[in-house]
Automatic annotation (TrEMBL):
Keyword annotations: Hydrolase
Species assigned in the record: Novibacillus thermophilus
Pfam family, one: Amidase_3
Record GO cellular component, one term: outer membrane-bounded periplasmic space
SPOR domain segment(s): 183-261
InterPro entries: MurNAc-LAA_cat, N-acetylmuramoyl_amidase_3, SPOR-like_dom, SPOR-like_sf
SMART domains xrefs: Ami_3 (SM00646)
Organism classification: Bacteria, Bacillati, Bacillota, Bacilli, Bacillales
Name of protein: SPOR domain-containing protein
GO biological process: peptidoglycan catabolic process
Length: 261
């Protein structure tokens, strides 16, 4: 399974850029945690964090940690400062693999597709720099500068929970696309309203359910070498929806159960 390290910049005694009561380290952590949540909930991937709380972590500790995990990708989250506006991404300005270049292209495009269309954020471009976390990581790495903390319009966006969520999800989707991560297979709750060795009996049960306003299909199954015809009265992503359908069927005097797949 692929390994991704998310690095919330600064932390602890290092606040990063500051504008009044707003500190870069706090925004970095908020975005990074949402990226982790997005990736873990949707893809088969191991996600590691250089910090999950407000603690001091040196640059060397960050890269040593990523290297010790034999990670496949490293993403460092930062907020810009200096009076500008917009979003930009960085990879190492030395020799890098084609994979590193292509990953930057994918992530940059994914994020800007969301930020430019929904929030009219300026694209500051794909850049290169001699940052420690880009130079000393042995895997492909990227550093993202997510708007400017000292520009009023940018800060107002960073203070918006919906913006932070959209940004984090775009970063997560960019990483997933760049790494060709496999989507996580979520549980499907199938409501089975009878199993018959007679296909005709199964079809009769399905018609009964349909006459009571419930869609039903007959599914052929092999159990212990024998052919059975199951009547499936719905398949749901949420168990609560499956249970509601189950109760409706039982009110008709029909035995039924939920099959998790």
């Amino acid at each position: 399974m692929a390994k991704v390290v998310i690095d919330p910049g600064h932390g602890g005694s290092d606040a990063g850029a500051v504008n009044g009561s707003y500190r870069e380290k706090d925004f970095n952590l908020s975005i990074a945690l949402k990226v982790r949540e997005y990736l873990r909930s949707r893809y088969d991937v191991n996600v590691f964090m250089t910090r999950t709380t407000d603690k001091t972590v040196s640059l060397r500790q960050r890269t040593d940690y990523a290297n010790s995990q034999n990670a496949d990708y490293f993403c460092s989250i930062h907020i810009n400062a200096g009076g500008g506006t917009g979003w930009e991404s960085f990879i190492y300005n030395g020799s890098v693999s084609n994979r590193t270049v292509q990953a930057q292209n994918v992530i940059h495009r994914k994020v800007m597709d969301v930020l430019s269309s929904k929030y009219d954020v300026r694209d500051r471009g794909k850049k290169r720099a001699n940052f420690h976390v880009l130079r000393e990581t042995r895997m492909s790495a990227i550093l993202l500068e997510n708007l400017f903390i000292d520009t009023t319009r940018d800060l107002n966006l960073l203070k918006n929970d919906t913006f932070i969520t959209d940004l984090a999800h775009a970063i997560g989707e960019g990483i997933a696309d760049a790494m060709s991560l496999n989507p996580k297979q979520s549980t499907l709750y199938k409501v089975i309203a009878g199993s018959f060795q007679s296909q005709a009996n199964a079809r009769a049960r399905a018609r009964l359910l349909e006459s009571n306003g419930m869609d039903a299909v007959v599914v052929k199954a092999n159990v212990s070498g024998k052919t059975w015809y199951r009547v499936q009265a719905g398949a749901f992503r949420k168990r609560s929806n499956a249970e509601a359908r189950l109760n409706k069927i039982k009110k008709l005097g029909i035995d039924a159960f939920i099959l998790e797949t």
